[in-house]
Write a structure and sequence with these properties.
182 residues; alpha+beta; 4-stranded antiparallel beta sheet
């Protein structure tokens, strides 16, 4: 994305990722106390795409979940943040890691994880933010994009494939995060 005021695509990307995180309950906001009754932590997460080769919505979702999973609080001395010094204290996260899966319809075919050319050729897009509560798949948020419509049969087809695809993605991301944490 270019510098300057954000374009609609940047705004939509931020809103989809944010909604997935908030609605999943991934961050335990009640545990963000800095000083009880007086101060709380604010979490700011910026996403800077270096290259958009397709499916930026899902890539941003994975990047956000990964960043939150490995983030730590800064050191505090005398009620003041020590910038540049980090503690071992992790963010208060739950098991409800939100990851988006975006389906595109090209003609009569529905695909997952498109490259740029497939995105440009698609008629409609459906992004679904998912998480797991133990072994149960949860849908946290959905966002339809583009002007065409999906039939009830097409939506049901997407929902039929969703559990398997979401499980694969979650397992892969969790495995990579474990490696990052060492």
């Amino acid at each position: 994305f270019e510098s300057g005021p954000p374009k609609i695509e940047a705004i939509e990307l931020a809103r989809i990722v944010d909604r997935g995180i908030r609605e999943s309950g991934f961050i335990d906001f009640k545990k963000l106390n800095f000083k009880t009754g007086e101060k709380v932590w604010a979490i700011l997460l910026d996403i800077f795409p270096v290259n958009d080769a397709g499916n930026l919505l899902d890539a941003a979702s994975i990047a956000a979940a990964t960043a939150l999973s490995v983030a730590v609080f800064p050191e505090i001395e005398d009620d003041k943040i020590q910038f540049g010094k980090f503690s071992d204290k992790k963010l208060p996260l739950t098991e409800m890691m939100p990851l988006a899966l975006t389906f595109h319809k090209i003609g009569k075919t529905i695909i997952l994880d498109p490259v740029t050319e497939e995105e440009e050729a698609s008629d409609v897009r459906l992004t679904i933010s998912t998480s797991f509560n133990k072994k149960n798949l949860l849908i946290n948020a959905m966002q339809k994009g583009k002007s065409a419509v999906l039939s009830q049969e097409e939506v049901m087809s997407i929902f039929d494939s969703l559990p398997e695809q979401a499980k694969k993605l979650h397992e892969l991301v969790i495995e990579k995060i474990k490696k990052l944490k060492g």
